[in-house]
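Lab notebook, bench 4. The sequencing result for the construct came back, and we need a structural model before the next group meeting so we can plan mutations. Quick request posted to the team channel:

Model the 3D structure of this chain.
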Amino acid sequence: MLFAHLKRILNLTRLRLRGPNGAQDEFLLAAIAQNLRKLAKLRPKTAPMEAAA
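Done. Here's the predicted structure in token form:
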């Protein structure tokens, strides 16, 4: 499912970097972005700080 998500949602239908190393780098960056999105969803919402008068 994660690979399908990378291809469909993050628009990785074509690789922009050439060669095996470029493909590995591109998928690594995409996986990092995907993990950051997951972490952002897990973070609890904080209440806005009130201005001190």
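The CA atoms of residues 1 and 33 lie 16 Å apart.
Will bring this to the meeting.
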